[in-house]
Amino acid sequence: MEIRIDNLKVRPRRLVFAEPVESFLFLRELAERGEVQFRGNISTDVVVTLVGSLVEVEGSLSGTVVLPCSRCLQPVEQPLELQIALSFSRQVVPHAGASEERELSEEEVGLIPFEGDTIDLRSTLEQELLMGLPQHPLCADDCAGLCPVCGADLNRNRCNCTPPIFHGGLAVLKGLKITKD
Ligand SMILES: [Zn+2]
Ligand SMILES: [Zn+2]
User: C-alpha angle with apex 30: 27 to 31, nearest 5 degrees?
Assistant: First the structure.
């Protein structure tokens, strides 16, 4: 998943990549720790444009993620399709004597630095994928979730637990007087 800057000098390029999850360092680490699993390839289809000293990358990023259902914890396989717009900026080696500390201009914020003649997209793309993960994945819209008392998966079998009643908090509120200055 490399962009060669030389190839962009004449005109923008469309680049299509697909690589197995194993070639992404951080995704592989997460999978090994059992936190987030991805299935199959991570694919990207982007147009890459050289604009002055910036390299603009725009297009789509897709893959299939396996996450626990946020209610019943059963694994849910979910396709992900994300739009991406990234700006890479060539790292300028500071001149000797130049002040190291300076304010970043607005355009520089959000730029991803790179060095040399190629940009490897992998680490940036895996961060984009992780930021695009669904926050509350569900195995089904009407997933019944787990029993809060015994932990039974209510999609599979009903238990005979009485749901807990939370009244302690309200009793405390009754005795509370709100005073205004
Ligand atoms: Zn569920
Ligand atoms: Zn129960």
Answer: 85
